[in-house]
Amino acid sequence: MATRRYVKQALSQWMKADGPDSDVVLSSRVRLARNLRGCPFPMLAAPEQSEDVMDQLLSVAENGRLNGLGPLDLIRLSELTELEKQVLVEKHLISPNLANESRNGALILSQNEDVSVMINEEDHLRIQILRPGFQLREAWEIASKIDDVFEEQVDYAFDESRGYLTSCPTNVGTGIRASVMMHLPALVLTGQINRILSAVTQVGLAVRGIYGEGSEATGNLFQVSNQITLGQSEQEIIENLHQVARQIIEHEKAARMKLVAESRTRIEDRIRRSYGILSHAAIMDSKEAAQRLSDVRLGVHLGMLPQVNEQTLNELLVSTQPGFLQQAYGEPLHPDQRDMTRAELIRSRLAIS
C-alpha cells in the first residue's frame, strides 16, 4: 500500500533540500481552498454528494492532468488507520480536520510529499504546496498552476463580488493561506519576540504554533501567515507576507549575532547542556524535547555543534511526535512509554548524526 511509504519515514523528500534562509525558515507553505458549484459544503453534504465530489476531483489526477507533478498516489482516508492519519497530520500532509471529521475524504499526494491535495476537508478541495526554506513565491507559483488545472475540469463556486466561496467566511475571496515556518530562538532569548509578533499582527498577519490555529509555539517554532483573504489579490497577499517574513529573518539573524557578541559563553553552555541531555536522557517528554532540539538547532547554525546533522534535527521534529513514535513502535504506547521511547530515539539518532 502506498501509504506505508509516507508513514514509515519521518523526513519527507522535499525536507532534504537546503532551501534559502534555512537557518531561520524551515518551510514555506501555500494552501488554496476551493469548492464545487452546486454542491453542499462537506459539513452539510450527504454521503452520496461528498462521494460524487471525491470522484470528480480524483478523476483530474487519474486522467493525467497533473502529470507535470511527477508520480502521484491517490489515497482514500477510509483506507487508513487512525494512527496512520495522525502520522500524516504530524508530517503536515493532511490537516487535523481531514483526519478527524472528513466524510469521504481523500488525498492526492506527490511522492516527494511537497504537493498535498486534500479532498472533502473543510472545503471540497485544499491544494497545499510545501517548499524547504524561504520559498513562498515558488510555492505560490506551483499552487496556482495546479489550481488552473482543476478549474479547467470542474466548476468552482465563485462570486463576482466575493470571490471564491468557502466553508469558513475567513477564507472567502482568494481562498489563500500562505505561511512561513520560522525558528526564532534568538528573538525569544533576547526578549524581542513579543514586540516582533505584536508588530506582525498589526499588519494583518497571524502567528501560530507548528500545527497551525490553536497550537502552541513549542521549540521556538512560529508559523506566520496571512489573515486577510478578501480585498487583496493572491499576489498582494504573497508579497506582503514575503516582505514581513524577510524582516523577521533579518531580526532573528541580528539577534543571533548579538547573543554571540555579548553572551557567547552563556549561550554556548545552554546549547551544550541541551545536547548533553538529549544525548543521555532516559526519559524525555515532547515539550522538553522540542525546546532542547531548538537549542541544538541554534548551536548548529552558530557553528557550536558542527558534528550534528541538520537533517537529523528535521527528522526528529516529526519522529518524536506521539503518532509517529507509536507507528514506529508498532503498538499504542501510554505516555510514560512514549517518553522513554522518545528519549531512546533521540539518543540513537544523535549518536550517528
- Strand order within the widest beta sheet: 2-3-4-5-1-8-10-9
- Looking at how many chains there are and whether they match, the oligomeric state comes to single chain
Give the CATH level 1 class of the largest domain.
Alpha Beta
Distance between the amino and carboxyl termini: 30 Å
Keywords: Allosteric enzyme, ATP-binding, Kinase, Nucleotide-binding, Transferase
Binding site for ATP: 27-31, 92, 126, 177-181, 208-213
Protein name: Protein-arginine kinase
Motif (RDXXRA motif of the pArg binding pocket involved in allosteric regulation): 338-343
Topology readout:
Layout: H1 3-8, E1 25-34, H2 47-62, E2 72-76, H3 82-90, H4 96-101, E3 106-110, E4 115-119, E5 125-132, H5 136-153, E6 158-159, E7 163-164, E8 176-183, H6 185-189, H7 193-202, E9 205-208, E10 221-226, H8 234-280, H9 286-301, H10 310-319, H11 322-329, H12 335-351
Antiparallel strand pairs: 1-5, 1-8, 2-3, 3-4, 4-5, 6-7, 8-10, 9-10
Helix pairs in contact: 3-11, 8-9, 9-10
Spell out the key features of this protein.
353 residues, alpha+beta, Creatine Kinase, Chain A, domain 2, 2 domains, 8-stranded antiparallel beta sheet, two-stranded antiparallel sheet, 12 helices, 48% helix
Outline of this structure?
The protein has 353 residues and is an alpha+beta fold.
Could you describe the 3D structure shown?
The protein is of the alpha+beta class and 353 residues long. The protein folds into 2 domains: 1-14 and 29-173, 2-Layer Sandwich (Creatine Kinase, Chain A, domain 2); 263-352. The protein is built from 12 helices and 10 strands. The chain has helices spanning 3-8, 47-62, 82-90, 96-101, 136-153, 185-189, 193-202, 234-280, 286-301, 310-319, 322-329, 335-351, and strands spanning 25-34, 72-76, 106-110, 115-119, 125-132, 158-159, 163-164, 176-183, 205-208, 221-226. The strands form 2 sheets. It has an 8-stranded antiparallel β-sheet, with helices on one face. β4 (115-119) and β5 form a beta hairpin. α3 (82-90) packs across α11 and α9 (286-301) packs antiparallel against α10. The model has no long low-confidence stretch (mean pLDDT 91).
